[in-house]
Every structure is written in structure tokens, then in C-alpha cells.
Description:
Distance between the termini: 41 Å
Helix content: 40-55%
Bound molecules: flavin mononucleotide
Number of domains: 1
CATH class: Alpha Beta
CATH topology: TIM Barrel
Shape: globular
Structural class: alpha/beta
CATH superfamily: Aldolase class I
Amino acid sequence: MDANSRFPAISDLRAQARRRIPRFVWDYLDSGTGTEATLNRNRQALDQVRFVPSILHGEIAPDLTTPLLGEEYPLPFGVAPLGMSGLIWPDAERLLAQAATNARLPYTLSTVAAQTPETVGPLTGGKGWFQLYPPRDTEIRKDMLKRARDSGFSTLVLTVDVPVASRRERQLRSGLTQPPRLTPRLLAQVALRPAWALGTARIGMPHMRTLDTYSSDTGARDSTAHVGYLLRTSPDWDYLDWLREHWDGPLIVKGVLDPNDAPRLQAAGVDAIWVSNHSGRQFDAAPASIEALPLIRAQTTLPLIFDSGVTGGLDILRAIALGADFVMLGRPFHYALGALGRDGPAHLIDILQRDLVANLGQLGVAKPADLRGQAVTN
Ligand SMILES: Cc1cc2nc3c(=O)[nH]c(=O)nc-3n(C[C@H](O)[C@H](O)[C@H](O)COP(=O)(O)O)c2cc1C
């Protein structure tokens, strides 16, 4: 049976990944914060977005090409940054960067990924996106920007929705520490997941490699306190101005929900706004990202990128209809790796493309952007 019959939907990839990823790692990937109300709200609010299909359109030739920040992407989506991506599936950063680049889609590397910009950047053909958790120290900040630029990242993403660490109680209960320490309980979980265990044994237990350079004290390396000291500055508007001055490529601010912030970001010279509630991982009383999206659209002419809870091509169309120019997915790409290993991401891209084409066909619309303003939400 081919992948399309066995895993026709993201829910199939998710179920299979769950069977192949150790429990404590699964909880890291899958959890939100608090009671996970915001995590669930993302899905509920997406389901509320409807379209009324009209009829007798004749044949349409779907056109999924999407312009964004000077690039012409063949599809309207890409890969969101995940910290410790390589813990979720061995070598995830390289596998995802390669798969995205093969499909000419953007891949975003997190500051706290398990791979460095030097390792991943060359795989992105000079078009990678680098996600910055803001370093406190100015010299480290400058060095990180230089490393990202020199290794082939053209676009910088500043994440602003992690001013403090969130609690993520499910993750705490599962026993995952930073860096991961394999207690007997966690080892027992690993023993039940041979593909993950063998892959991880082959490339070594992952850690936040980009930060290695900034710690001479290997004992402190990667500990939560150390990473917190390096990166948790709760940046302010002056920090953003500094970044705008020091990064000459496209600059995106990720984690925006308040429409009032949009005009100010535009005035600060930001090139795009990434509307996201971090998929419910930071604050459990946030609006669903899809609820915030049209309100932000009304306040800015900047391109809008959207994420949080997208589980199919229809969700991508929903976001575009409500004002997004581009959509990113985080967890689904990791479900794909967990389910199918290195073949997973290409299969996910195929699922999303089929879904987009099928739903556009139902609506008799050739280009996703033509759906702008067509969605019903009440
Ligand atoms: C396990 C995990 C780790 C994440 N790490 C980061 C990160 O390092 N930087 C960041 O900006 N966002 C991070 N995010 C948020 C994602 O970039 C993205 O906003 C969110 O996951 C999108 O929702 P989705 O996973 O439902 O597609 C993380 C999300 C998950 C699930």
C-alpha cells in the first residue's frame, strides 16, 4: 500500500508518529500550556471558518504559486521553527531543511534547535529562515546574526511571544529535562521505540548546538538556567529597532496577536508579521490565532504569515481567506518524520497540495488568494 492510502491525512501521520516516538518526547511535541484550552481553541476556531460553494464554474486550473518577501513559492506554506527538533526525530533539522528546499519551500531553523546554522544553512540554498530567540549580550547577538547570514539564511524571524518561560505542565509531568537526562523511567520509554532509539544512538543525544560557542563552561552548557540567561531578555521596541539596523534582509516578527501592535511593527520597518499563539504553548487565555488574524489584517498592509493548529490544506485556505499571505506548520512536519522518517516531509507536502487542489476545485477558485474575504465565521 502506498503512503497516500495508508496515511491520507495528517491525523494518520500523527497516530503513527505517536507509536514511534518515546512518550516523554511525544509530550514535548504535542503539549500546550495550562489546561491546553488555547491549543484546543485553535482547532475549534478553524472549524468555525466556512465557505459557501457556488456552482457552475466550469473547469479550473489551480494555481498555488505564492509570492512572499521577494520570492515566488510554488505552494503557500513552509516549515515553522521547533526547538530541539532533532530530539523529536533524529536529524530532523537536516531532513526538514532538505525536504523543504527540494520543494522550494521555506524552512525555519530555531535558535534552540539541535543543529547549528552552519550545518543547516547550506542545505537551504541561501534561502533559509533563521528564528532568533533574542540573546541578552550584544556581542552574542551580533555573532548569531553573522553566523546566520554567513551560512545562508536570508530571512530573520524574531520570536516575541516567549517573554518568560511557560509552564507546560504536561511536559513537566513527563519528566523531560533540559538538557534531556535519561532516567530509568525515560529509558524504559525509549526501549519501546526502536527506530527512534537507533537513530538517536547513531547521531548522539541532541542538545542546543548553536549555543555551544557561547559557553566555555561545558558543565553549564544547555542547562535551563544557562539558556535562560543567554536568551531570555524579554525584548522591547528598542531591541527591535536595534535588530532592524543590524539585519539587512527581510525581518519577520513572530507571535503577534494584538491588532494594535501591527501598525507599530510596520512603522518599525518590519517586513512581515507572523500571527501565532505558539500553538497554545505559551499562554492559555490567548485568542485562537485564526481569530486574531482578520483583526490584524485590518490594521496593516504588511504580508501576514499564519500558524497554529493547521491540520490540512483546507486550514491553509481558511487562513488565506481571513488575511494570511502564507502559512507555516510546525508539529505536522514532525509527525511526518515520526511516521515515515526521511520520506515523511515530502509525503506531507503532497497531502497538503492534494488537499488545496481538491478544496479549491469545490469552490471553483483557481488561486487561494482569490478566497480573500470569502469566508464565513459567525
Ligand atoms: C515542540 C515545539 C517547539 C517549538 N519551538 C519553537 C522555537 O524554538 N521557536 C519558535 O519561534 N517557535 C517554536 N515553536 C512554535 C512553532 O514555531 C509554531 O509557532 C507552532 O508550533 C505552530 O503550530 P503547529 O505546530 O500547530 O503547526 C515550537 C513549537 C513546538 C510544538
